[in-house]
Amino acid sequence: MAKGAPKDPEQLLLELPIKEALAEEDFLPSKSNEEAVSWIGNWPNWNDGHCLILYGPTGCGKTHLCHVWQKMTGAQVIKLDQLQSFDFTSNENFLIIIEDVLENLENKQSQENLLHLYNWVMEQGGYLLLTSIEHPKKWSIDLADLSSRLLAANAVKIKEPDDELLKAVIVKQFADRQVKISEKVLKYIMKNTERSFSAIRDLVADVDEISLTEKKKITSAIVKRALGEKVEK
């Protein structure tokens, strides 16, 4: 397992080509995610721990940061439901990523498999990166040994976007669709939309669909319609 000197997280993000980003946007560092970016960049110095849990709302950049860490370390991505057939003894890569760990964690067998993986990674001196929408203290885990290990792991939250990041995400989401919006439209969206990554993603898709279908330039009126409001006549 290679343990090269940690790179600056901003350098890592710049090195990651757009085509390799698992999210549909380039990662945008801001105050809401700076702690998570710092942890990824500081590997393997994870406060003497071998497990990092990134948690936060859908679309906040957890997958992208996992991809950055994978590129940085050569870690392999495994789904929780694949652990049943995972061959621990023949595997020589001790760096593992499991995303959306809550998807199958209510299953008792999945919990036992994750505990087995956790113990194996620790024994080999490896590292485990997990993602979730919630802090591990809110996970429903029946297996006491697994619960205690996960609660002792490093858990870092990616928060909802601040104004700076929200504006950047809106502009980038439209740019991904080859659309440039005016400052007036951007201000209208900022003032009226739900302040979450998932809401922005849905709104941009709806606005773009109306614009393409009606062959009209994107205006505040179109955004208002996409938000479900009636346009004043």
Rg over CA atoms, rounded to whole Å, is: 20 Å
Q: Oligomer, anyone?
A: single chain
Overall structural class, as computed from helix and strand content, comes to alpha/beta
Quote the beta fraction. 5-15%
Q: Describe the main β-sheet briefly.
A: 5 strands, parallel
Order of helices and strands: HHEHEEHEHEHHHH
Would you identify the CATH H-level superfamily of the largest domain? P-loop containing nucleotide triphosphate hydrolases
CATH topology title of the largest domain? Rossmann fold
Number of strands: 5
From the spread of the alpha carbons, the general shape counts as elongated
- What's the CATH class label of the largest domain? Alpha Beta
Give the mean pLDDT.
84
Query: Low-confidence spans: pLDDT under 50, at least 5 residues?
Result: 1-7, 9-25
Short description:
By secondary structure, the protein is an alpha/beta fold. It is 43% helix and 9% strand.
Written description of the protein model:
The chain has a 5-stranded parallel sheet, sandwiched between helices. Helix 8 crosses helix 9 (220-226). It has 233 residues and is an alpha/beta fold. The N and C termini lie far apart (65 Å). The chain has helices at 9-15, 34-42, 62-73, 108-123, 144-151, 163-175, 183-192, 197-214, 220-226; strands at residues 51-55, 76-77, 95-98, 127-132, 154-157. The chain contains 9 helices and 5 strands. It has 2 domains: 9-157, P-loop containing nucleotide triphosphate hydrolases (Rossmann fold); 163-226, Orthogonal Bundle (Helicase, Ruva Protein, domain 3). Residues 1-7 and 9-25 have low confidence and may be disordered.
